[in-house]
Write a structure and sequence with these properties.
The protein has 195 residues and is α/β, with parallel strands linked by helices. The chain has one domain: SGNH hydrolase (Rossmann fold, 3-Layer(aba) Sandwich), CATH 3.40.50.1110. The protein contains ten helices and five strands, in the order E-H-H-H-E-H-E-H-E-H-E-H-H-H-H. It has a five-stranded parallel sheet, with helices on both faces. The longest helix has 21 residues.
């Protein structure tokens, strides 16, 4: 199976001195459970720093098509939205782009969505939350499994401290550990990755 993780700098793992981010940590957990997955499971981290919802919508299909292999199942895990605020992407435009991506991805393989996490800046965090809630509504309409990452991280003093110690949007390695730990327990993702 090919699993494509699609998103922004938080999917890419910016701020993690170990260069794993949450995606790399989930891959490590999967391979630790079953070493045969190292060759049977292809994990593609297609996170890109600064990518807004609109920029991701413009690139995701071409990038995932290049990773498709005949006869092999494909899955898509979307996690984006944190870059929309600095790029002034309107919520309606972001949600339209999200709907288009999810609907198209569903026709190609199993599809999941993870909402944007909190930021240290209260205004930025509020916009991430508002967008995330809209994404959750879309996922309910489209029957796409979604994980709401914002509430558990916003309630975590350790995670919020990791943001404050850095640039306010990207956690350090410990923050990415926490993200991965929350996601590791999510059944739809566990089914993809065997963790």
């Amino acid at each position: 199976m090919v699993i494509c993780f699609l998103g922004d700098s938080l999917t890419q793992g910016i701020g993690d001195a170990l260069a794993l981010g949450w995606v790399g940590r989930l891959a490590q957990a999967s391979f630790a459970v079953d070493e045969t997955r190292v060759t049977a499971l292809t994990v593609c981290n297609l996170g890109l720093r600064g990518d807004s919802s609109l920029r991701l919508a413009a690139r995701w299909r071409e990038e995932t098509d290049r990773r498709r292999r005949p006869g092999e199942d494909m899955a898509f895990v979307f996690s984006f939205g944190a870059a929309d605020r600095p790029q002034q992407v309107a919520r309606a435009a972001a949600l339209d782009a999200t709907r288009g991506m999810l609907a198209e991805a569903q026709a190609l393989g199993r599809t999941l969505l993870i909402t944007p996490p909190p930021a240290h800046n209260a205004d930025w965090a509020a916009l991430n939350r508002e967008l995330g809630l809209g994404m959750l509504d879309l996922c309910a309409q489209l029957d796409v499994p979604a994980f709401d990452l914002h509430p558990p991280l916003a309630a975590s003093a350790a995670y919020m401290a990791s943001l404050a110690a850095g640039d306010g949007i990207h956690p350090d390695a410990a923050g990415y550990d926490e993200m991965a730990n929350h996601l590791r327990g999510w059944q739809p993702l566990r089914e993809f990755m065997g963790i």
